[in-house]
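re: that chain from earlier
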Amino acid sequence: MHQLVELIVGSAVSVAAPAIAGAAVKLFQKLRFDVDEAKRRKIETTVTDVLYEVEEWAAERLKAKLPVNSGQKLSRAVTKLVDKLPGISEAQAEVLVRQTLPLLAMGASWALRRKDLADASVK
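^ sequence. v structure.
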């Protein structure tokens, strides 16, 4: 009788193991996706916040009649992002800034995007 129970339990475990492993893999993928999604949102929020901070900084400088140019603004944004997002390189921060500017209707890239949108609507 003991051998029969071992055989049944062993067979059940052999049959169920792939299903359990598959469920575990799906669970870990889901958890990782949620973490990645949360991280993505945090990065987006941080980039947006930094860009608005830099715009405020630039506005204050202009009010004080101090010069400010796009290179200074980019450099300041990149430095802030590298400080606020551990593990991000300056090159990655610059890409994030350049990709986000048109989405926030900031920078010269917004004018180009508006022109592209206008051209697309005419076609």
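The CA atoms of residues 31 and 37 lie 10 Å apart.
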